[in-house]
Amino acid sequence: MASSAPFLLCILLLASTASAALLFDGGKSAAKGKAAVDTEWRPATATWYGDAEGDGSTGGACGYGTLVDVVPMKARVGSVSPVLFKGGEGCGACYKVKCLDHGICSRRAVTVIVTDECPGGLCGGGHTHFDLSGAAFSRMAVAGAGAHLRDRGQLSVVYRRTACKYGGKNIAFHVNEGSTNFWLSLLVEFEDGEGDIGSMQLKQASSAQWLDMKHVWGATWCMYGGPLAGPFSVRLTTLSAPKTLTARDVIPRNWAPRGTYTSRLNFEASL
């Protein structure tokens, strides 16, 4: 994605909301009224894409880029229909998916992370659909039957939300290419627990104000104004159930585009 495109989109989003860049009440009010995470098994369909035993897509509509090719995301990625993608706010959510034909499927569910969107075909019309990596799809089979399961092409499955667990990693913020002191764009990585982000705020150095960032696309949020002065603290509130976390001074004064800055904390790895 060209660096100018998210810049222009950020400006349009901010212009459409009069409350942008105003004092935000601790990052909690935006999450009021949200339903808790539903962990019941529900019906869906599933296909697979990429190499037969591959990791799935490179990058994807969430913007994680090469992170999808390495542990802890490697081989666990999933492209989902719009009802789960939620315009990008579903990025980072984790699901357990399993098929029900016990003649070829094990009773084991595979855990996938939302990293991409499949907008048409089987994914359209309000359907709930998972397009999984070849590796993830194959893991639903009984031992030795992965190739036979892939030959089915499309499966009826059940799914439910599950806690994201990134194996000891803390939440990180990647500063997107093109960011300046007047336009800051952040990609959020490795959120345990719910995994999704419903609101995000930024606090500059020596300031008491939490400024409301705007969701641009995928897992990317932006702030337009300035000049913006670091170090920056970032406050996140999850989308599915209102839980708030504050990473203080996580982005240093001398931050740079393409830099990734890791916090010292994460959400609880449970729902």
UniProtKB/TrEMBL annotation:
The answer to whether UniProt assigns keyword Acyltransferase to this entry is no
Residues of the signal peptide: 1-20
Alphabetical GO CC annotations of the entry are:
extracellular region; membrane
Expansin-like CBD domain: residues covered: 182-263
The question of whether Signal is a record keyword is answered with yes
Q: How does it sit in the membrane?
A: Peripheral membrane protein
Annotated TM spans: none
Which Pfam families does UniProt cross-reference here? DPBB_1, Expansin_C
Q: Mind telling me which SUPFAM superfamilies this protein's record contains?
A: Barwin-like endoglucanases (SSF50685), PHL pollen allergen (SSF49590)
Question: Cross-referenced InterPro entries, in alphabetical order?
Answer: Expan_Lol_pI (IPR007118), Expansin/allergen_DPBB_dom (IPR007112), Expansin_CBD (IPR007117), Expansin_CBD_sf (IPR036749), LolPI (IPR005795), RlpA-like_DPBB (IPR009009), RlpA-like_sf (IPR036908)
Biological process terms in GO annotation: cell wall organization; syncytium formation
Q: Where is the Expansin-like EG45 domain?
A: 59-169
Q: Write out the annotated subcellular location.
A: Membrane; Secreted, Cell wall
What keywords are assigned to this protein?
Answer: Cell wall, Cell wall biogenesis/degradation, Disulfide bond, Membrane, Secreted, Signal
- Name the job this protein performs: May cause loosening and extension of plant cell walls by disrupting non-covalent bonding between cellulose microfibrils and matrix glucans. No enzymatic activity has been found. May be required for rapid internodal elongation in deepwater rice during submergence.
Of which family is this protein a member?
Belongs to the expansin family. Expansin B subfamily.
Q: What is this protein called?
A: Expansin-like EG45 domain-containing protein
What organism does this protein naturally occur in?
A: Brachypodium distachyon (Purple false brome)
